[in-house]
Amino acid sequence: MYRILTTLALTLTLLVPLAAVSPWTPVAERSSPSVVFLETIDEGGEREGACSGFVIDTVKKHVLTVAHCDDAETILVNDTKGVILFKDIRKDLMVLEVANLEKLPAIALATHDPQVGDEIMSIGFGYGLDKPMVRVSMVSITNLNIKGRSGPFFVFDAGFILGQSGGPILDSEGKLISIVQQGDAGSGIGVNIKVIRDRVGSYFQSSQ
Predict the structure, then answer these.
(1) Domain 119-203 belongs to what architecture?
(2) For the chain, which terminal residue's Cβ has fewer other Cβ atoms within 10 angstroms, N or C?
(3) Is the torsion defined by CA of 104, 109, 197, 167 positive or negative?
């Protein structure tokens, strides 16, 4: 009996740490290195603002972010000057070409939209911190059209943080389902997969 109890206690001890690990931890570990820090620099060389972006093709050195990050003379991506390849103000999407991305993994585009109630993860350099912040939230609304804005949008039940604009929104497989575009203290919005695929799908890694 003592041997049985000892074996059972050892088994439970080994299982507890495994149960305590969030299912989103591996997604964050794989995806965070893909997220890059963007700075906007004015004509005088002064920093005007900061936002986020993420690698979508390591071979062609493509970074996807939001168009509203382009509000200055120069855009630096991880301290390297980015060149604008594509910009859509209405859909708030922008693709940059940036050197020195070979060692950063690319984020793939998901094949299907999430459903209401699905958990998602957003990653971005909130508040301009040195490391990207990870937030797990839920899809509140899908395919929402907002008067005066260009959708359709997803609505998420967690507010996006200042500086997180342009960061990826991922499903449980680490695939891109949206991009951080706008939000307040209680919710955030981003265009859906079809919009991203239609407007910038050709800039993603060719193997996807």
Answers:
(1) Beta Barrel (2.40)
(2) N
(3) negative
